[in-house]
Every structure is written in C-alpha cells, then in structure tokens.
Amino acid sequence: MTRPVIIDCDPGHDDAMALLLALGDPRLDLLGVTTVAGNQTLEKTTRNAQKILALAGASDVPLAAGCERPLVGELTVAGDIHGESGLDGPDLDVPVAGTAGVHAVELMRRLIEGSPEPVTLIALGPLTNVALLLRLHPEAAARVRRIVFMGGSTDRGNTTPYGEFNIVTDPEAADIVLRSGLPITMVGLNVTHRALATTQIIEEFRALGTRLGTTCAELMTFFADAYRRNFGFEHPPVHDPVAVAYVLDPSVVRTVAAPVVVELGGTYTRGATVADLHHRSARPDNADVAVGLDVDAFWPMLIGAVRALGIPRTLVTSEDR
After folding, report:
1. Which residues of 147-182 are buried (b: 16+ CB within 10 A; e: fewer)?
2. Helix or strand (DSSP H, E) at 80
3. Distance CA 93, CA 189 (A)
4. Is-contact 240 124, C-beta < 8 A?
5. E strand or H helix that includes residue 228
6. Which of 271, 104, 29 is nearest to 173 (CA)?
7. In this protein, which residues make up the domain named Inosine/uridine-preferring nucleoside hydrolase (predicted)?
8. Extended strands (E) in the chain
C-alpha cells in the first residue's frame, strides 16, 4: 500500500535527490510538488523542480509555485552552496511541463481534500507555504497525517552558529508549524550530516549508466566542491533525502519525542531550534526529533530509487514554458 505525500521544496541539490527518492520508490504516491523561495528565488526553485520532474519522466505530477519571500523580513538565498541557478553542475537543458496555475497553498489544499486518506507533508525548504496552509485552511490541516520537515538541529547550525538554513530563512513559519498540534517529525543537521555523499557514493550513481545517474553524480560533485569551499567538509551531507527516507521507512531514522521551540528574538540565536531532549522544561512534547540514521540502509534506498527511474521513456513534449 502506497502512502500519499506532498513535497514542498526549494531545489537545491539535495532537494533534487529527495524528489528522485520519492519518485523512484513505489511505497510513496507523490500527489504533488510545491515550491518555495529558499536556496534560490522562487522562479529558480520552481524551474529546477520542473527540470527534475522532467528528467525523471514525471512531468504529470502537479507542480505549483508558492511564496517568494518569508513571512517576516527579506529573502537571503544560498547561492554560495547551490550556485546561480540553484542546481549548478549538470546539464539540465530539458523541455519542461507548465505549473498547475494556482498558488502552492491552494494546490496543497486541493490535493489533501481530494485524497481518500490523510496526506503526509514533506517539507524540504523554509516552512512558509506549510505555515500558510495551516493558517488559511485549518480544515485541510485536519487531514494531514504528519508533517515531516528537514530543518533545524539539536546542536550546531549551518547558517548561523545555532541556526539551520531552512529555519533561519523563516523562523516565524517554523514557529507556526511547531505550535500547530499536528504530528511532526524534525529531521535536522545533527542527523543529516551523517548522510555523506562520499566519492564512492558518487561513483555508484555514475555507474548506473543512465542520464539520471550521471546527473546525480554531477549534482553531488558540485555540491561537494561547494561544501569543501564553504565549510571545509571532505564530503557533502545530503540533507533532504533523509526526511523522505524517514517517511518511506521510519526504522532508517531513529527519533525521540521532545518539546521543540524556535528562537524568534535572540540577537545571536534567531532561528535556532531548541530541542529539550532531556525534558528539563515543563513544555509538552510537540515533535519527534531525529537523533540517528542507519547510513547503510539509507544509501541503497536512494541509489535504488534512481536506478528504478532509469532513463525516462519519454521526456515531456509540451512547449518549454
């Protein structure tokens, strides 16, 4: 039995890999994809999502663009990590299908209300679209099985000393989501930093012998160079697919229940996720927090999904819009 999911993302190299995992594993039914500004501008993240869907032979999956800026403040993109396009590295010159013609929040609402069973939302970028869905359409939110987001950390950050990029970009949206009362899983840097795309892993993608496998290898090679240049990492962490892997098989990602809040006002810590793993506060648990990753199960899952997608039988033939 497949599980219906919607992916909200800001592609982004690791978002692209997460989309391929969701598309290539038959245990998930990807109802739709929505985009948000984050790793790059909304126009670019939407274009990148279109390209990945086309490369995977999945341009029939509904796609809608959402918010072009956070709820509060201005957008700061991650061009130093993802490049000018947001997906620098491989040749992604493919014909793409158009978008659904509605705002991402409206597409989410329609897909959730039209699904015969509750839908899992997998959020891989800033949580702006998800927060607006919860505020504007509480009736749809009631039919959400779980929100699984890649973001935050139980220790260090990657944008500020304690702030992870997705949460720092829109702390107010993350605060709304974490206070929603819905079942939530936070997959943060403390775990995704264990999903390292080593040279061997990159070569395994290349060895698949398909255009998609080569594209993944080239995406990860660019990503590796960016992480080496910006953080001094020997190998890049592939964050977003870990959240998808959790939905596919919760045993791959170990979690613990804990109270989690977002720091909104700290001079040095705005956007930090404060996870009370030792329950020192009186706050109730509001999230399952990722604390471990079965790396040996994760990579075969991702590589297997890309292998299953293979070479798309046909790329879309509609005019490039």
Report:
1. bbbbbbbbeebbbbebbbbbbbbbbbbbbbbbebeb
2. helix 79-82
3. 32
4. yes
5. helix 211-231
6. 271
7. 5-299
8. 3-9, 28-35, 63-65, 119-123, 144-150, 184-187, 253-258, 260-262, 273-275, 287-293
Cβ burial of 101 (10 Å; 0-12, 13-18, 19+) is exposed
Q: Number of helices and strands (H, E) in the chain?
A: 13, 10
- Residue 217 to residue 82: CA distance in whole angstroms: 15
Catalytic positions are 239
Strand spans (E) along 168-252: 184-187
String of DSSP letters for 95-109: ------SS-HHHHHH
| pLDDT (tens place) for every residue of the chain, 321 residues total | 799 999 999 999 999 999 999 999 999 999 999 999 999 999 999 999 999 999 999 999 999 999 999 999 999 999 999 999 999 999 998 999 999 999 999 999 999 999 999 999 999 999 999 999 999 999 999 999 999 999 999 999 999 999 999 999 999 999 999 999 999 999 999 999 999 999 999 999 999 999 999 999 999 999 999 999 999 999 999 999 999 999 999 999 999 999 999 999 999 999 999 999 999 999 999 999 999 999 999 999 999 999 999 854 444 333 332
Find, among 151, 152, 122, 139, the residue nearest to 18 by Cα. 122
Beta-strand relationship, 28-35 and 3-9: parallel
Domain boundaries, the chain: 3-309
Q: Which residue shows structure tokens 């996720």?
A: 273
Cβ-Cβ contacts under 8 Å for 106 (sequence gap 6 or more)? 64
Measured distance CA(151)–CA(107) in Å, rounded: 23
Structure token digits, residue 272:
């930090």
251/236 Cα distance (integer angstroms): 23
Residue with tokens 């970009």: 169
DSSP state of 49: H
